[in-house]
């Protein structure tokens, strides 16, 4: 999070007359770095006229709305509307929501345990968090939450809907869900809990493969990854580990620095990720330091349509360096960076400030990470003719700028070949066998994607070592 120049110097926004609106915004423009933006939207006089329009509407709402309005709420709604009109990930957070976000990044928050976005006016589930009220109730990625406590979510901002779903531990809430393929709405009654998601889950598969699942990227993720791998190495004993499955399926992302550290854990050198902002001089790049915590063990990264943001940074970095084989289906495609900018005494704004790029120069925005080996979770997926639950489907999603030209453009480099032992890829089954048991999260043997990853790693161990390409 960073406090941009000019934010703290803006005066409090008070509207007593139309002239005060222009004065307040003028002070902010002079104090902050956005002075160069005036020319882009027309003359300064036109900007003043638009600010007067805003002030006129605000005064009419205060004077003539059917019920008295709260000035702060009206202005906060206007700010949020301005930000949400830019893209699906920019928004305003009041003080309470800002504190909630800070708590979440520390790895603890109160509520139901679901990551959500907004689509067609409804709240859309990106992913339920493991072992939370939402996950136990059967909430699934792609579900639309149409009602909260029998009140429609249409007309609510995403922040308002999230705020309604949060609450004190032990209090109950009713959700109405619309799910594709289900004719009638699903009614769920849940009890709120203090959510302390276990962001790292690990176990040995067959005494020779380390399975590590990352459910999100908060301040505990990289430390938990190191601890998990150390424990599994000890459990494997003298036989040792043959490989690692890093499961990022339905991981909605989180902190950028944690994604960088997790990637760095498996890389000895080279670029991990870069960001490009509006101004070329604001571009940033992060490189790996020496030291691979796995000592070169082969890695398979599992991704699906619920793998987003920080998950895609990790998958993209390891894929580009051929440090891991990415398996599953195409990821969500959120390739934008949000900077949280505190507004002293008034919460913060979450503003999209850059796009991020994999080491080869690929922008994942609205396209996602394409797996090296496509493996579907169930046979029904092959019969679906359209893609769902991805960034490109969201209203006002940023375009992918891979084809852009100019000083700030860099064409992506082709990826090196996989160079796997003969027959290894051909042994992977894209679809589960006909009549295979339905997926049960408590039974790893029903997880087709996981089983194919395990088979790939064991076949690699039986063949020649993978030749890693450097970048």
From TrEMBL:
<keyword id="KW-0720">Serine protease</keyword>
<dbReference type="InterPro" id="IPR041489">
    <property type="entry name" value="PDZ_6"/>
</dbReference>
<keyword id="KW-0645">Protease</keyword>
<dbReference type="Pfam" id="PF22694">
    <property type="entry name" value="CtpB_N-like"/>
</dbReference>
<dbReference type="GO" id="GO:0007165">
    <property type="term" value="P:signal transduction"/>
</dbReference>
<dbReference type="InterPro" id="IPR036034">
    <property type="entry name" value="PDZ_sf"/>
</dbReference>
<dbReference type="GO" id="GO:0008236">
    <property type="term" value="F:serine-type peptidase activity"/>
</dbReference>
<feature type="region of interest" description="Disordered">
    <location>
        <begin position="399"/>
        <end position="420"/>
    </location>
</feature>
<dbReference type="Pfam" id="PF03572">
    <property type="entry name" value="Peptidase_S41"/>
</dbReference>
<dbReference type="InterPro" id="IPR005151">
    <property type="entry name" value="Tail-specific_protease"/>
</dbReference>
<dbReference type="Pfam" id="PF17820">
    <property type="entry name" value="PDZ_6"/>
</dbReference>
<dbReference type="InterPro" id="IPR055210">
    <property type="entry name" value="CtpA/B_N"/>
</dbReference>
<keyword id="KW-0732">Signal</keyword>
<dbReference type="InterPro" id="IPR029045">
    <property type="entry name" value="ClpP/crotonase-like_dom_sf"/>
</dbReference>
<feature type="signal peptide">
    <location>
        <begin position="1"/>
        <end position="31"/>
    </location>
</feature>
<protein>
    <submittedName>
        <fullName>Carboxyl-terminal processing protease</fullName>
    </submittedName>
</protein>
<feature type="domain" description="PDZ">
    <location>
        <begin position="98"/>
        <end position="180"/>
    </location>
</feature>
<keyword id="KW-0378">Hydrolase</keyword>
<comment type="similarity">
    <text>Belongs to the peptidase S41A family.</text>
</comment>
<dbReference type="GO" id="GO:0030288">
    <property type="term" value="C:outer membrane-bounded periplasmic space"/>
</dbReference>
<dbReference type="GO" id="GO:0006508">
    <property type="term" value="P:proteolysis"/>
</dbReference>
<dbReference type="InterPro" id="IPR001478">
    <property type="entry name" value="PDZ"/>
</dbReference>
<dbReference type="GO" id="GO:0004175">
    <property type="term" value="F:endopeptidase activity"/>
</dbReference>
<dbReference type="InterPro" id="IPR004447">
    <property type="entry name" value="Peptidase_S41A"/>
</dbReference>
């Amino acid at each position: 999070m960073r406090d941009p120049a000019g934010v703290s110097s803006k005066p409090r926004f008070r509207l007593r007359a139309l002239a005060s609106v222009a004065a307040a915004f003028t002070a902010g423009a002079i104090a902050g770095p956005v002075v160069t933006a005036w020319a882009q939207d027309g003359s300064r006089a036109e900007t003043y006229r638009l600010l007067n329009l805003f002030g006129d509407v605000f005064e009419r709402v205060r004077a003539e709305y059917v019920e008295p309005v709260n000035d702060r709420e009206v202005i906060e709604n206007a700010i949020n509307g301005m930000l949400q009109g830019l893209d699906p990930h920019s928004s305003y957070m009041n003080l309470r929501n800002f504190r909630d976000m800070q708590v979440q990044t520390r790895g603890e928050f109160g509520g139901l345990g679901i990551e959500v976005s907004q689509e067609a006016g409804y709240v859309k589930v990106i992913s339920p968090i493991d072992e939370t009220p939402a996950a136990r109730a059967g909430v699934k990625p792609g579900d639309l939450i149409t009602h909260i406590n029998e009140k429609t979510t249409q007309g609510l901002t995403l922040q308002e809907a999230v705020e309604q779903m949060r609450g004190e531990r032990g209090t109950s809430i009713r959700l109405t869900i619309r799910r594709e393929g289900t004719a009638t709405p699903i009614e769920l009654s849940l009890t709120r809990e203090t959510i302390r998601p276990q962001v790292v889950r690990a176990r040995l598969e067959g005494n020779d493969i380390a399975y590590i699942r990352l459910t999100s990227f908060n301040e505990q993720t990289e430390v938990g990854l190191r601890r998990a791998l150390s424990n599994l190495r000890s459990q494997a004993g003298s036989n040792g580990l043959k490989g690692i499955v890093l499961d990022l399926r339905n991981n909605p992302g989180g902190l950028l620095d944690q994604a960088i550290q997790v990637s760095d854990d498996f890389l000895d050198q080279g670029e991990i990720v870069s960001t490009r902002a509006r101004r070329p001089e604001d571009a940033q790049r992060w490189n790996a330091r020496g030291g691979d915590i796995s000592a070169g063990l082969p890695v398979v990264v599992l991704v699906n349509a619920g793998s987003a943001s920080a998950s895609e940074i990790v998958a993209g970095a390891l894929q580009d360096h051929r440090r891991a084989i990415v398996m599953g289906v195409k990821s969500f495609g959120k390739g934008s960076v949000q900077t949280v900018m505190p507004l002293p005494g008034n919460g913060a704004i979450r503003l999209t400030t850059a796009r991020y790029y994999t080491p080869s120069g690929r922008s994942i925005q609205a396209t996602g990470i394409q797996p090296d080996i496509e493996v579907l979770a169930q046979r029904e997926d092959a019969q679906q003719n359209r893609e769902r639950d991805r960034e490109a489907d969201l209203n006002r999603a940023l375009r992918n700028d891979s084809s852009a030209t100019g000083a700030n453009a860099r064409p992506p480099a082709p990826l090196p070949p996989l160079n796997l032992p003969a027959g290894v890829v051909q042994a992977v089954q894209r679809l589960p066998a006909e009549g295979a048991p339905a997926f049960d999260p408590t039974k790893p043997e029903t997880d087709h994607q996981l089983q194919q990853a395990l088979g790939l790693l064991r076949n690699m161990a039986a063949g020649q070592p993978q030749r890693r390409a450097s970048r």
